[in-house]
Amino acid sequence: VGNYEADVQRWHEIGGRFTRAVDLAREAHQDDVRKGTRIPYLSHLLAVASLAIEDASEDTSLADQLEDVAIAAMLHDVVEDTVDKESPVTVEDLERQFGAVVAQIVAGCTDAHTHPKPEWERRKRAYIEHLKIAEPNVLCVVLADKR
């Protein structure tokens, strides 16, 4: 059953920083849709954030990182999806706006930090190798993204 009061306190920790992350994700992906659909890409980001919040809430090792995990889940694609845009969002930008933990998680979820992006197969193989040693907070977001 756990400690209900502690759980409620953690849920209240998701606040203004998360709202700013939603705003940044909306701006960065404003014209993006899910592949082959008219569904706004923001729906994917909200779904990943929701799953990551659920998973992190159940993992005692991530309990003190709940808001950071939620923010990183919301922004997990922003670096690789804006790298070739006029105003790219970098890991350094995320660190300035949301802190080192969020930046570390997003960097761990990102398979392309440069433009042009490396060749697809090479990029994905390197990403899979990286996941073998990734931190639990990164894996939480990656697994939420792949569900």
From TrEMBL:
Gene3D superfamilies xref list: Hypothetical protein af1432
InterPro entries for this protein: HD/PDEase_dom, MESH1
Any one GO molecular-function label of the UniProt entry: guanosine-3',5'-bis(diphosphate) 3'-diphosphatase activity
Name under which the protein is recorded: HD/PDEase domain-containing protein
